[in-house]
């Protein structure tokens, strides 16, 4: 009799667990890049059960060189994406109505890293040089900066030659470019790990140059926000995600370990991810997830200040909302 009761109870527990699993609301998040500490907050939120506490079942899809988050969400492959605002606004102007619902990153990590031996000591020295630039939506901050400096990017004698940079640091190591695009938390350290000493480099952080634009925001399609059920799901998602980000900031080594556990490729190393998490924490510090309107305006003005070739042609309307974070952060 006791065995029968125990069996029934066990079956009941199993059924209840299955019910909760089935009842959880599905959310698909498309990352901007591969699994790494840049996205630690989301992996931590999943690992620590923050999403589950909100009744969410979140599928985190890594990005890669051939994956454009905006295309993924436009094609129905994700509910929400991580993207940089220049790319998101340019995409919006082209007809994909992306809306920023949260901004976990307060600071930009983008910079140009130059070999000191190239003779580059200030932006005035860029003319006549070859500069490595990422494309696939990542080129907009660079093009905006060059436009503000009034430096053509056509390879002419008064401009710079743009080298389409792969997602590595080879052009600098092999001295194909005087400067390359790097992130404070990733490629810069790849240069250092390749054996080049910091004193042999000159760096120009976009933040220091006054041309920083917002990175790593959360974007959804505007039409979907009109659905109250979807909006409520995003409120839960943002609340849990920001809980994950703040946990990651306070526990960087543990967060890096969680990222490594989720790296199915096995390509990431503990040393690099723990160092990256330390740098990422500097960028997310100061953000509670709500977009700072002043940061948005600064980004827009930077993108509009492109002379005859601006990244966007007019001030965007409806490109962000506080509706989600107002509810999530109560």
TrEMBL record:
Q: Catalysed reaction per UniProt?
A: N(6)-(pyridoxal phosphate)-L-lysyl-[4-amino-5-hydroxymethyl-2-methylpyrimidine phosphate synthase] + L-histidyl-[4-amino-5-hydroxymethyl-2-methylpyrimidine phosphate synthase] + 2 Fe(3+) + 4 H2O = L-lysyl-[4-amino-5-hydroxymethyl-2-methylpyrimidine phosphate synthase] + (2S)-2-amino-5-hydroxy-4-oxopentanoyl-[4-amino-5-hydroxymethyl-2-methylpyrimidine phosphate synthase] + 4-amino-2-methyl-5-(phosphooxymethyl)pyrimidine + 3-oxopropanoate + 2 Fe(2+) + 2 H(+)
Provide this UniProt record's keywords sorted from A to Z. Iron, Metal-binding, Pyridoxal phosphate, Signal, Thiamine biosynthesis, Transferase
Pathway, according to UniProt? Cofactor biosynthesis; thiamine diphosphate biosynthesis
Which parts of this chain are annotated as the region Disordered? 307-330
Domain SsuA/THI5-like, chain residue ranges per copy: 37-255
Renumbered to this chain, the signal peptide range is 1-23
- Which stretches are transmembrane? none
Recorded superkingdom: Bacteria
How this chain assembles, per its entry, is: Homodimer.
Functional note = Responsible for the formation of the pyrimidine heterocycle in the thiamine biosynthesis pathway. Catalyzes the formation of hydroxymethylpyrimidine phosphate (HMP-P) from histidine and pyridoxal phosphate (PLP). The protein uses PLP and the active site histidine to form HMP-P, generating an inactive enzyme. The enzyme can only undergo a single turnover, which suggests it is a suicide enzyme.
**PANTHER family on file:** 4-AMINO-5-HYDROXYMETHYL-2-METHYLPYRIMIDINE PHOSPHATE SYNTHASE THI11-RELATED
The similarity comment for this entry is: Belongs to the NMT1/THI5 family.
Specify the protein name.
Thiamine pyrimidine synthase
Which species expresses this protein natively? Sinorhizobium garamanticum
């Amino acid at each position: 009799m006791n065995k029968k009761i125990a069996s029934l109870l066990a079956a009941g527990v199993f059924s209840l667990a299955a019910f909760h699993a089935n009842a959880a609301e599905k959310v698909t998040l498309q990352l901007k890049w591969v699994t790494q500490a840049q996205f630690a907050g989301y992996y931590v939120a999943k690992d620590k059960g923050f999403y589950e506490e909100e009744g969410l079942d979140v599928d985190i899809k890594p990005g890669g060189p051939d994956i454009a988050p905006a295309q993924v969400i436009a094609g129905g492959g994700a509910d929400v994406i991580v993207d940089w605002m220049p790319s998101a606004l340019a995409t919006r102007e082209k007809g994909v109505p992306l809306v920023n619902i949260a901004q976990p990153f307060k600071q930009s990590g983008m910079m140009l890293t130059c070999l000191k031996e190239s003779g580059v000591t200030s932006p005035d020295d860029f003319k006549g040089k070859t500069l490595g630039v990422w494309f696939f939506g990542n080129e907009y901050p660079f093009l905006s900066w060059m436009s503000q400096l009034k430096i053509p990017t056509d390879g002419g004698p008064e401009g710079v030659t743009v080298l389409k940079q792969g997602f590595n640091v080879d052009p600098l190591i092999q001295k194909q470019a005087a400067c390359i695009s790097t992130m404070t938390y990733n490629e810069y350290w790849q240069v250092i790990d390749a054996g080049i000493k910091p004193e042999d480099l000159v760096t120009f952080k976009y933040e220091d140059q006054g041309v920083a634009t917002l990175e790593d925001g959360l974007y959804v399609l505007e039409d979907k926000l009109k659905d109250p059920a979807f909006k409520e799901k995003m409120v839960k998602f943002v609340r849990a995600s920001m809980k994950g980000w703040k946990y990651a900031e306070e526990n960087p080594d543990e967060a890096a370990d969680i990222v490594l556990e989720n790296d199915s490729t096995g390509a990431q190393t503990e040393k690099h991810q723990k160092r990256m998490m330390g740098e990422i924490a500097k960028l997310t510090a100061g953000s509670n997830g709500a977009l700072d309107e002043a940061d948005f305006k600064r980004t827009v003005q930077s993108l509009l200040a492109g002379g005859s070739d601006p990244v966007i042609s007019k001030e965007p309307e409806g490109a962000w909302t506080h509706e989600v974070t107002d509810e999530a952060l109560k």
